[in-house]
Amino acid sequence: MRRLPGLRVFRILVSCCVVLCLVIASTPAGAEETSTTIIIDHQPDPTKVTINGKALQDGMTLRVPVGKVTFRVENTDTAVYDYKITTEAIDAPEAKAVQTFLAALGPYLTDIGAEAGAAQSDPELKLKLKELDKLLLDLRSLGLATLQTYRNVELGSSTLQDGQLAARAQVQSSGFAYTDHLDAADKLHGIYSEIAHLVADPTIPPKLAEAAKKALAESDKALQLAYNVETLVRNLLEAENYWEKGKYSITLQKGRKVTLQISKKKIAEVARLARRPEIDVTLKVLPDWAWKPAVGLSLLYADGAAYPGFGTKEIKESSMGAGDGGFMITEGEVSDERFTYGLTLSLTREGWCYREKTSCTWIDLTVNPSDDVKALGAGLSHSWGVLRVGVGALWTKHKELGDGLSLGQLLPSKDDLVTRETYGGAEFYISFSVSGWQPFVADD
């Protein structure tokens, strides 16, 4: 039996649809190898803060290639700001929050120094109290000098690298050492241990013993101060003018909803130096498809999609003789399928859109999902917002004569009439569609 050209095209189209669905449902091999960096420029002027060169706005969407995504904040200061990223898929580790360092820097140092200076006699114990006094004053000076370096860096009068060099010099001039930590707390532990040992001597004069005991009572404050200054110095020495976090997986099937937060350190003395804006935005990072799909509802009109039914009409023997009688094949009731509807999958790409991507040209594939009528269409359309007009070819399932039968042919019996269902013979259609609008787009 001869196959109609339209049926051949229809079968090719169906095969292409299957391949297209498989492509959409799978991630190409090797796609995870792509690495993309999203750059946030943390400028002091809030209006000049950008992400990948565009003004940073809450709720904006970024598209990146399939693979791994890293977020990088540039022109910032990690000594002054904390950073946090969370995603919908996983809880990204946030930058470790720093404890309050110098909330009571001045008062604590002044009080401790005053108590330490109260010693009047006993050379050895007095020497230790004076050593404690000097150590606390040096610690205070280092803390204040470090804060000044923070200020210089944040205000732009000094680069971060110059500030770090200055901080190392300040540590050295204060009589402390910094390797992986500041040794101020170690020195304090040693001095307090010696004072505790010496004050146990019953021959110590009462006033000197009282001064030593008050100094020991303040040891927790002094040690906390040492830890705070150590943290402050460490943050500055280990600071960077950028912050980076990643890598988050982006696949064809799954993007990320990302919350980025940049906040001032929880340190009063440091927080007041901040001149860059705090940031709290939620972004959508979606895979950048070469072909952008959209789904919508279409109403189609194909003028030629009216198909006759088939029946038989009994013919009596004529005067021409025996054998002239039988059942003639005739046309029956017409099935009018000119109007139909369907779900439309549309594809477009860069270069096919203009007017800020609100008007695009699309390749359409339409399927009628009803049980009683099956139709498949392929064509082109153009959209203006959510509205779309298109044209193309429509294949509608209908009946045709089978076994080489034809209209007017005589059959020995009406039971010899054979029909079959086919999609052969495409018809031109015009369509009107709604796409990119609820309920055809996913909720955020």
Count of the separate structural domains: 3
Structural class comes to alpha+beta
State the helix count.
8
Q: Major sheet: size, sense and barrel closure?
A: 6 strands, antiparallel, barrel
End-to-end span in angstroms? Answer: 53 Å
Provide the spatial order of strands within the biggest beta sheet. 10-13-15-16-17-21
- Spell out the helices and strands N to C: HEEEEEEHHHHHHEEHEEEEEEEEEEEEE
Ranges where pLDDT stays below 50 over 5 or more residues in a row are: 1-5, 22-32, 89-121
Rounded to the nearest angstrom, the radius of gyration is 41 Å
Principal-axis shape:
rod-shaped
Q: How much is the average pLDDT?
A: 76
Helix content: 25-40%
Share of β-strand residues: 25-35%
Number of strands: 21
Walk me through what this model shows.
- This protein has 444 residues and is an alpha+beta fold.
- The protein folds into three domains: 136 residues, no CATH class; 117 residues, Immunoglobulin-like (Sandwich); 133 residues, no CATH class.
- Helices cover 29% and strands 33% of the residues.
- It contains eight helices and 21 strands.
- A six-stranded antiparallel beta barrel has the order 10-13-15-16-17-21. The protein has a five-stranded mixed β-sheet with strand order 3-2-1-5-7, with no helix packed on it.
- The two termini are 53 Å apart.
- The N terminus is likely disordered.
